[in-house]
Give the backbone structure.
Amino acid sequence: MTTSSADRVLVEHADIAEPFAVLRSSPLRLARASVLIETGLLTVPMYQRSQEAYRLLETGLYLLQQAPDSDRWPLVYAFRLLSLAGLKPGLDCCVGCGREPGKRSVSFCPAEGGVVCRRCRKEGMSDRDMCKLSVDTLRTLRMIMEAPENRLARFDFTRRTMTQAEEALFSFSAHQLGSHLRSLEFMRKMKVA
């Protein structure tokens, strides 16, 4: 009788290599860490090894451990995990016609996968289907998607940029992954409470 190695696995011993104790010290801190974990689970197919995704998750959690009250690390690494999975939002130009985005603010359409100009907005699309992004938010999102890993700690978010980036991530993940990031929704509710 032949059995494959995937039938059963016996684990005789396990240790927690890094407990991330600070991240477990409050519900909001745990929610921030959960955004990273959930994004990783939704972007990497089950049973598929991804060294790069694991490295992004590990780095994001270590940085979050160092700054547990920062909302930027879940956003930065969630967007980077989406990009790694081939779901990078189109932020450089209109995804419809290729024109440069506006000078003051742009419309981000999660269903279309990125920024859209007024001309390319499909009939019937309302403002509820869009996220408004300031030029600063757009620039910040571009930089975090393209910056080398060692430069990410230099980027900071204004309050407006943080709010717009959270909304864009929430809507974009729902359209691209077929599911809202529940941990992000929880994180946002915890901050309001």
